[in-house]
Design brief:
The structure is a homodimer. By secondary structure, chain A is an alpha+beta fold. Chain A is 35% helix and 27% strand. Chain A is globular and about 80 Å long.
Amino acid sequence: MTANKHALSVTRTEDFAAWYQAVIAEADMAEESGVRGCMVIRPWGYGIWERMQRLLDDAIKATGHENCYFPLFIPLSYFEKEAEHVEGFAKEMAVVTHHRLKSEGGKLVVDPEAKLEEPLVVRPTSETVIGAAFSRWVQSWRDLPVLINQWANVVRWEMRTRMFLRTAEFLWQEGHTAHASEAEAREHTLRMLEVYRRFAEDCVAMPVIAGEKPENERFPGAVATYSIEAMMQDGKALQAGTSHFLGTTFAEAQNIRFQNKEGELELAQTTSWGVSTRMIGGLIMTHGDDDGLRVPPRVAPWQVVIVPMLRDTDEDAAVLDYCRALAAELQGQSALGEPVRALLDARPAKAANKRWAWVKKGAPIIVEVGPRDMAGGNVSVIRRDRLYQDNGKLASTIQPRAEFVAAVGTLLAEIQSGLFTEAKARLDANIRRGVTEFAELERFFETGGQFPGWVEVEWSRPTGAELEAVDQRLKALKLTLRNVPQDAAPATGTCVFIGRPAVERVLVGRSY
Amino acid sequence: MTANKHALSVTRTEDFAAWYQAVIAEADMAEESGVRGCMVIRPWGYGIWERMQRLLDDAIKATGHENCYFPLFIPLSYFEKEAEHVEGFAKEMAVVTHHRLKSEGGKLVVDPEAKLEEPLVVRPTSETVIGAAFSRWVQSWRDLPVLINQWANVVRWEMRTRMFLRTAEFLWQEGHTAHASEAEAREHTLRMLEVYRRFAEDCVAMPVIAGEKPENERFPGAVATYSIEAMMQDGKALQAGTSHFLGTTFAEAQNIRFQNKEGELELAQTTSWGVSTRMIGGLIMTHGDDDGLRVPPRVAPWQVVIVPMLRDTDEDAAVLDYCRALAAELQGQSALGEPVRALLDARPAKAANKRWAWVKKGAPIIVEVGPRDMAGGNVSVIRRDRLYQDNGKLASTIQPRAEFVAAVGTLLAEIQSGLFTEAKARLDANIRRGVTEFAELERFFETGGQFPGWVEVEWSRPTGAELEAVDQRLKALKLTLRNVPQDAAPATGTCVFIGRPAVERVLVGRSY
């Protein structure tokens, strides 16, 4: 297999959407379940999620949060308390109306006699039910802050679904906090945004732009919504995590009040923030190539996969022993602060098939061991991030086993940082700055090639109807406002949308 | 506080059910959510679940399983395929019938136009939807065995609920496997039963009896169901985990067929097995005492809690520094194969209140540090498993800090094994053997005191209507058949229920 003939049947430039589906299928990450809008997450996809969970959970706990679990079902009436919130979600919720089935003429039907008095909504997010708990838990300033998180499934009835990016049911963590002061709650909102930025960049090797969403893109009921936005290889933006300052919106709706130090009753200030299995979609579209997925070592279920080259001869047992010893040696090493995750793939299949299966899955390092490697005390090493030589041939290097084992931690760290550097260079190269006219922005997306990237423009931060008009103009071009980057240069010119002095910079792009 | 005045408002002997609820409330483990049958699991309860998950997940992975995730919703028609299975669950399932709400006269209502074509059942268990996936994954003998597991929430519409023991929604793991031969599947069913037995005994310090459930207690659709049964302090049995050999029941219903080595199409043999948050209920009723919970160190979120005795003086800062250093030293130690989990509780509350809060939560070791301890380079150590001296006073021992730190691993291991030994002695003492007449069995439960325990009797393993009759006789006494212990002595006498030669022994008791 050479560089112009890749492991996937479709390349990114041929059809990015089809390529995305091909990666998921060929890497055995997930599949359609037969249940509308719901996917089955297979072991390799779920293994990546488990790694993400472990690393993000550690970071969430390190910032003082504890995990809890709240009910899947939320009574309809809870949503009525917060009008703006329900408006944002009301159109797409799964509703449980009955609690029993019965047999009728040999068929199963819903038992009409088992109708619930109050319908239950399958949680689309848990602000309402967690707010109700907070109102029980918070009495005094001494009870604040409340810092909690839950890992859960949520359901939003989506009409058009795409695996990992938009599914009816998805997995996520949702953090919820209550604070005594607005300043503290706002600071916490930004602290969690920073936790997400670091997680995305340091663990998923996915560079992001952290910033505030414009008013029209706020979470229903939020006073301010922040996001991390990642650029996919097709130039589109993926909102990969959000952090919301909710002010007293939910505290009022759910009656979260505390006695302050002066003995007065005050409303708590709340925040919420979430990251979901969507992050796996981001990983695929950040690191995948035409041979499949490339998983950054920190989130790879297996970092090193050993493929024995068996020939149905007497030597096989010795090769397997050699591989087992190698796996144990690797597991004794550490990389990126954790023990190396090494797997011996001893399944009954051809070595070449196994190699390509792991290439498509994106294991960071594949080690092949045949009788000749064994005899020389060597291993043949394939780096997934540098799969081909300049001549288009597969790059496999023979190394002394001890040398490979001793350096594996360094190599994995190098692969991790190399994937980030590559993605960061692409992000930086594909944000166009200095666009001062709307026509120029329009032209950029018309003539910017197959994958045009984003434009950062100066704007006057319009609100209400003015913002709505901007949004409509952009929507006509299939564009959206992404966020106002935290670390953008100050505005010095004129708003690109409205001829007023600009106050800040905002990113514009196509998005998922 | 002395031995006859305990931290809870109700003792086990006064009212065991009220005591159970009091432990959960006073230890901040969980609370009613306001959503019918669903609880909120609070940080201390969820932290114990996270520890259980981590340990059991490791054991499940060590036996070759990988984690996946399957849809929450199961189309109604999936249940029709397996008649016996649906019969067992049909009466108690949450059904999603609509996918949208709408506003009507200022109120939220279910939008009648958004009715689903096919109702979706919220999974009560996932055999049907996982079986459908297996039928896609399994083509050849080379694809077998399939060994997977998922951690998920499930819903069974229970009329009478009790926190952790029986809730409408609960959390669990469900393992599902497919095998090429019946022998292999049966062996795997027992392997997972053994994983559960070890988990319960080694991690939760909860002794159990592993054995086969009688036919009438089988999982719907199973060929054989095995359980681990634990004895609660009120003598009742808690089924704490089950493992099912499903034969070809689900393979037939879901069409899981493979080409065997001879090229013939064969049905796969499947198994399933689960452990749930019910295990937390078991932990409470195994180890709790009249001062609250006692958590075995292996599943304790915090194993050592440090409570500084602050007096609002200049010395406070030094005491806190001393405590911080102590926490770091403890975290550097290892206990039961893991780093020690030590917490410094520096919240603004009275030291005595914090002490009793941790006593009620059941942290294995509470260390108090006041100025005098600090001056002497000491710590004051309270063991939750030996809270009182013989004279009824609280047992707190002053120890040199370095000595305590060096021995903390040993101490935690001793507490872990001590809790198991105590519970095992109670289990052994409360299984009555040698009962040969039904009247004697009846008398045992009538006169066996407040918490009578179980009876192990010889029986003839009746089936069908005969078994039904036995079951009815027992139910009249509020008794059930628990299981046929794997390691019971062989039967030598006559069936206690039916005057036939006995073939094995079975446990009888009250149960949760």
